[in-house]
Amino acid sequence: MITYVFPGQGSQKQGMGSGLFDEFKELTDQADEILGYSIKRLCLENPYSNLNKTQFTQPALYVVNALSYLKKIRDEEVKPDFVAGHSLGEYNALFAAEAFDFETGLQLVRKRGELMSLISNGGMAAVMGLNEEQVAKALKEYHLHDVDIANVNAPYQIVISGKKDEIEKAASLFETMTEVTMVLPLNVSGAFHSRYMNKAKEEFEEFLHAFYFSPPSIPVISNVYAKPYTYEFMKQTLADQINHSVKWTDSISYLMKKGHMEFEEVGPGNVLTGLIHRIKKDAEAMPR
């Protein structure tokens, strides 16, 4: 069995999608029309460093991931058994599963990016060396009540999210802990997957009412629940994803329990491939 995984914010880089925009000219033109700017120029030239601003990052990654997927299935003539995406990448997983078309997905991520960009002064940091329980305990002990766990990327790679000054304070405290191997501030423009996204979630929920989705043709593993999407709760799950933790470790563990599973990352970079390698390694090391 094979699962295709789609990356989210943090995987963007100048030059991504090179070659794809000309190959899929019709969809590229469609994207330009929806966005009101050239997606090719944004990805290849990165004017005003816009690629690192969430309102641009999200549509850019969605388009590049989608075109990468279309090229892959056209060239290889194979469809995956399962799909999953990290945060923004989940929209590409739903697109691959034919829950909505390219255009609908782009309209959704454009709105998602716009709403998330309105909430400023946030930050995120990855804490390496501690598991989710240990990070939660440390946040409590250090009275960092305004910091949330945003992503469980691997058993010992936990991302925290909150106001910029609180994240800086948290990072300094985590660095003093002997078990912590590294604290890495993330190059993001907001406190994603935290309570600070509640307003964005509410507005996005309203926006979703206008759209029609189809039942997924391939199981899509949800970040929020680490199990397949159900059609009835699709819109609710997408809205919840904005202010809930990304359960990436649990999602990959769920897929690994299905039997012999191969994973292929579709889109720019290999961040998810590295995380999956870590999850597998830690699963092997854990006592049964």
Query: What is the spatial order of strands in the main beta sheet?
Result: 7-2-1-8
Number of helices: 12
Kindly, what is the distance between the CA atoms of the first and last residues, rounded to a whole number of angstroms?
A: 24 Å
DSSP strand count? 8
CATH architecture of the largest domain: 3-Layer(aba) Sandwich
Indicate the structural class: alpha/beta
CATH class of the largest domain: Alpha Beta
The CATH H-level homologous superfamily of the largest domain: Malonyl-Coenzyme A Acyl Carrier Protein, domain 2
Helix proportion: 40-55%
* Overall structural domain count: 2
Poorly predicted tracts of residues? none
The biggest sheet, with number of strands, parallel, antiparallel or mixed sense and barrel status, is: 4 strands, parallel
Provide the β-strand percentage band. 5-15%
Describe the structure.
The chain has 288 residues and is α/β, with parallel strands linked by helices. It folds into two domains: 2-118 and 195-285, 3-Layer(aba) Sandwich (Malonyl-Coenzyme A Acyl Carrier Protein, domain 2), CATH 3.40.366.10; 122-185, Malonyl-CoA ACP transacylase, ACP-binding (Alpha-Beta Plaits, 2-Layer Sandwich). Helix content is 47%, strand content 14%. The chain is built from twelve helices and eight strands. The chain has helices at residues 20-23, 25-35, 39-45, 54-76, 89-96, 102-117, 132-141, 164-175, 198-208, 234-241, 248-256, 271-285; strands at 2-6, 82-85, 122-128, 148-154, 157-163, 182-185, 220-221, 262-265. Strand 4 (148-154) and strand 5 form a beta hairpin. Helix 4 packs antiparallel against helix 6 (102-117). The longest helix has 23 residues, at 54-76. It is globular, with a radius of gyration of 18 Å. The model has no long low-confidence stretch (mean pLDDT 95). It is found in: Cytoplasm. One of its GO terms (cellular component) is cytosol. Involved in some intermediate steps for the synthesis of the antibiotic polyketide bacillaene which is involved in secondary metabolism. It catalyzes the transfer of the malonyl-CoA group to the acyl-carrier-protein AcpK (Mal-AcpK).
